[in-house]
Amino acid sequence: MQITDTILMIRPAAFGANEETAATNFFQTPISEISSRSIQQSAVKEFDNMVDILRRHGITVLVIDDTPTPLKPSAIFPNNWLTTSPEGIASIFPLYAPNRRPEKREDILKLLTERFVVKDIQDWSEFEVEGKFLEGTGSMVIDHDNKVIYTCYSPRTDMSILEKFANANKYRAIAFLATDKNGYPVYHTNVVMTLGENFAVLCEEAIAEEWELIAVRQLLDSSGHDVIRITKDQMHSFAGNMLHVKNARGEKYLVMSQTAFDSLYNDQKEELSSRANLLPIPIPVIEQTEGGSVRCMMAEIFLERK
To answer: Exposure winner among 8, 159, 230, 278, fewest CB in 10 A?
Structure first.
């Protein structure tokens, strides 16, 4: 599992509850007691603090300001429309919510091509007109070293596009049904599991079909990933939404929200601490309002620097 030392993040200009994503994201719990202006201001503070924490630990962060128009309440989550690979490919993906599609910006792609070696750009956006979606590393948890994609069934993850993407990039994809504590399909795979360099955080409780869980476990075992189990309650606290990264000195960190960290048991913290330095970051307003956590805010850059 390749991990990166460079992250791209989008500083929000109009953060807020997104009604167009709420239909499939049951982790969203809009805050009604404070104004939309206050939510935006709080989100910016949480964002800036997160960037500061990452940078203080030596992790390279490319910060790009969201454009003020059109309004894009979910722009803080660039990993859903943009991914990069160690092979030098930048991929753009079809998004479920129409008001998220303007997040895909040519100037960001231009910046990447100016600073990094981009050998190819794959744009899968054409499938949006067919009502088919594949939301980047939200839909797909990707093991680049072993060329494996883990994904859960969701309205935001079309299996036919997944197959096309996997074939085009020589990946093997494994799909499974994951449900939340109310029995609804989980909207993104990266809420259910985190894939580290030699470990995986997985909510096994969420995978109801035993044969699917066995298949996932066998694939993780065969690729050298020890599984650290979390409960559904911990999944709802975003304990599956972490990212394993490193800094320029090669020091490894497991980035997670403070909510996720607080939900972990002591033995889970000890096991994870043996793999990486734990780096909890408080983003309560972002999590509650949009139903996404720190991993969703970070688009990994695997491209070679020029």
So the answer is: 159
Sign of CA dihedral 37, 42, 43, 47: positive
- Average pLDDT, integer, range 225-246: 97
C-alpha 122/C-alpha 132 separation (Å) is: 16
> Do 134 and 127 touch, CB atoms closer than 8 A?
yes
Q: Please state, rounded to an integer, the average pLDDT across all residues of the chain.
A: 94
pLDDT greater than 70 at residue 20: no
- In sequence order, which residues have a C-beta less than 8 Å from that of residue 155 and are 6 or more positions away? 24, 96, 133, 185, 187
Q: pLDDT at residue 25 above 70?
A: no
pLDDT tens, position by position, 66-125: 999 999 999 999 999 999 999 999 999 999 999 999 999 999 999 999 999 999 999 999
- Using a 10 angstrom Cβ sphere, with 0-12 exposed, 13-18 middle and 19 or more buried, the burial of residue 98 is exposed
Overall size of the chain counted in residues: 306
Bridge partners of 168? none
Which of 223, 125, 131 is closest to 174 using CA atoms? Answer: 223
DSSP β-bridge partners for residue 10: 64
pLDDT band, very low/low/confident/very high, at 281 (cuts 50, 70, 90): very high
**Structural domains for the chain:** 6-300 (3.75.10.10)
Contact 302, 112 (CB under 8 A): no
Share of the chain above pLDDT 70, in %: 94
